[in-house]
C-alpha cells in the first residue's frame, strides 16, 4: 500500500489542528476588540462588577463549601481524570483516542498560557484601571477553558462507544455540560474570575474542542492504514 494517502491524511489532520488552534487563540481577542468598539466600553465591566457584588451580598457558607468542591473538578481532580482516562484507553489499546485526549489536553493548557501571556503583555500588571472588556490579569479562566476541552472530549468519546445505549450517551453529554457550567459558576462565585473571563475561556475552549473533534476521525484513518500496512500478509 502506498504511503502517499497516509501522508496526505496526516497533513490534513495537522492543518485542522493548526487552524483550529489559531482560531482559538484569535477569537477571544476578536470578541474583546468588538466589545471595545461599543459606545460604552464599560458595559461588560459594569455587568461583571454587578455579578460580583451580588455574589458578595448573597453568598453563604454552604455555597462557599459547595463551590470550592466543584472548583476542584477544574483543578487537580481534572488532572486525575485525564490520567485515569489515559490509563484506561491505553489498557484497551485505543491509541487514536488516547492520542486525541493528550493532544486536546495539552493544546488546551498551551492555549491558556498563550492567552494569559498575551493579555499580560497588552496590559501592564501595575495598571489600576482597565478600559477594555478583559478586566483583570486572571483573563481568561483556565479552569473553564481546559475543563471545557477535556470533559467535552470524554463526552465525545462516550457518544462513539458501541457499548453505551443512547440514553447513557445523552447522560454523558448532559453531565459534561452541567459540570462545565458549574465549574465556570464556581470560579465566578469564588471571585477568582469575572463572567467575561469565564465566557471567553469557554469560547476559546469550544474552538479548540471543535478542532479536536473534527480532526479525530481523520486521524483514525492514517493510524488504521498504517496498522494494516504493517501487518504481515496472510497466505
Question: Could you characterize what this model shows?
Answer:
78% of the residues lie in helices and 0% in strands. It is mainly alpha-helical. It has one domain.
Structural class: mainly alpha
Helix fraction, binned, reads over 70%
Number of helices: 8
Q: Gap between N and C termini, in Å?
A: 17 Å
Mean pLDDT: 83
Q: What is the 3D shape?
A: globular
The largest β sheet comes out as: none
List unreliable stretches of 5+ residues: 124-136, 225-231
List how many beta strands DSSP finds.
0
Strand percentage lies at under 5%
How much is the radius of gyration in Å? 21 Å
N-to-C SSE string, H for helix and E for strand: HHHHHHHH
- Counting structural domains, the number is 1
Amino acid at each position: 500500500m502506498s504511503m502517499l494517502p497516509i501522508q496526505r491524511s496526516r497533513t490534513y489532520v495537522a492543518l485542522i489542528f493548526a487552524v483550529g488552534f489559531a482560531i482559538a487563540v484569535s477569537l477571544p481577542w476578536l470578541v474583546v476588540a468588538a466589545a471595545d468598539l461599543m459606545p460604552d466600553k464599560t458595559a461588560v465591566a459594569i455587568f461583571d462588577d454587578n455579578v460580583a457584588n451580588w455574589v458578595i451580598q448573597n453568598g453563604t457558607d454552604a455555597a462557599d463549601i459547595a463551590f470550592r468542591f466543584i472548583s476542584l473538578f477544574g483543578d487537580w481532580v481534572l488532572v486525575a481524570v485525564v490520567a485515569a482516562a489515559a490509563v484506561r484507553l491505553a489498557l484497551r489499546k485505543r491509541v487514536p483516542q488516547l492520542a486525541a485526549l493528550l493532544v486536546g489536553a495539552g493544546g488546551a493548557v498551551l492555549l491558556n498560557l498563550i492567552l494569559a501571556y498575551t493579555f499580560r503583555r497588552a496590559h501592564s500588571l501595575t495598571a489600576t484601571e482597565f478600559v477594555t472588556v478583559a478586566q483583570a490579569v486572571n483573563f481568561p479562566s483556565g479552569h473553564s477553558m481546559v475543563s471545557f476541552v477535556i470533559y467535552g472530549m470524554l463526552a465525545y468519546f462516550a457518544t462513539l462507544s458501541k457499548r453505551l445505549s443512547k440514553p447513557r450517551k445523552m447522560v454523558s453529554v448532559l453531565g459534561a455540560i452541567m459540570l462545565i457550567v458549574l465549574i465556570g459558576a464556581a470560579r465566578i462565585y469564588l471571585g477568582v474570575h469575572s463572567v467575561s473571563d469565564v465566557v471567553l475561556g469557554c469560547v476559546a475552549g469550544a474552538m479548540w474542542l471543535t478542532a479536536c473533534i473534527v480532526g479525530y476521525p481523520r486521524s483514525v484513518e492514517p493510524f488504521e492504514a498504517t496498522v494494516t500496512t504493517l501487518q504481515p500478509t496472510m497466505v
